[in-house]
Write a structure and sequence with these properties.
It is a single chain. With 114 residues, the chain is of the alpha+beta class. The protein has a single domain, classed as Winged helix-like DNA-binding domain superfamily/Winged helix DNA-binding domain (Arc Repressor Mutant, subunit A, Orthogonal Bundle), CATH 1.10.10. The chain contains 4 helices and 3 strands. The chain has a 3-stranded antiparallel beta sheet. Strand 2 and strand 3 form a beta hairpin. Helix 1 packs across helix 3. The N and C termini lie far apart (43 Å). The mean pLDDT is 90.
């Protein structure tokens, strides 16, 4: 996919994966495509970051995986959000929204000069 992974804030890959999977089961390429489409091309994960992230959230029990046929009838591993993953997504989304709001306040602060 894209080489833009290095531009993502630290810790953001997991929440992006969980959010993509909250819309339903997807294989790796489908997740990457969903993220790029929803962000109008601003967010992209290179293959290494994508699959390392998927393996990490699977180890943590936030997603489960099973093999099945893709849209073009090739064998693909499909990932599905677990109940623990939904809970984690809610917690992380709350934390990220608070962080973004705080960052916005700092960036919108007026300087002494006006």
């Amino acid at each position: 996919m894209s080489g833009r992974t290095r531009d993502l804030p630290s810790g953001s890959v997991d929440i992006l994966l969980l959010k993509a999977l909250s819309w339903g089961p997807r294989h790796g390429f489908g997740i990457a495509r969903w993220l790029e489409e929803r962000s109008d091309g601003a967010l992209g994960l290179d293959d290494a970051a994508l699959y390392q992230g998927l393996h990490r959230v699977e180890r943590r029990g936030w997603v489960s995986a099973e093999w099945g046929p893709s849209e073009n009838n090739r064998r693909a591993k499909f990932y599905r959000l677990t109940p623990a993953g939904r809970k984690q997504l809610r917690a992380e989304a709350t934390a990220w929204r608070a962080w973004v709001a705080a960052l916005g306040k700092v960036l919108d602060a007026r300087t002494a000069e006006g």
